[in-house]
Write a structure and sequence with these properties.
Elements: H1 21-26, E1 35-40, E2 43-48, H2 49-67
Antiparallel strand pairs: 1-2
Keywords: DNA-binding
InterPro entries: SpoVT-AbrB_dom, SpoVT-AbrB_sf
Protein name: AbrB/MazE/SpoVT family DNA-binding domain-containing protein
């Protein structure tokens, strides 16, 4: 079973939020990295953009390989 945890951050005047360190570590985020926000009704996921893109490219390659076998 996955560990589930939550953390809290304050929204600043310009809408900025500092992602807590343990979440940055979990997502392998470094200075200058981008994050992607995925909104599904009332739930929001924050993912490492590079990892998200790489995973989607890999998934699409697998779908293409299955279709054309």
């Amino acid at each position: 079973m996955k560990d589930i945890f939550m953390d809290t951050a304050k929204v600043m005047s310009k809408g900025q939020v500092t992602i807590p360190k343990r979440i940055r570590d979990l997502l392998n985020l470094e200075n200058g990295d981008y994050v992607t926000f995925i909104v599904d009704e009332w739930r929001i996921q924050i993912v490492n953009s590079k990892t998200f893109i790489e995973d989607n490219i890999q998934s699409r390659k697998q779908i293409i390989n299955v279709r054309y076998l």
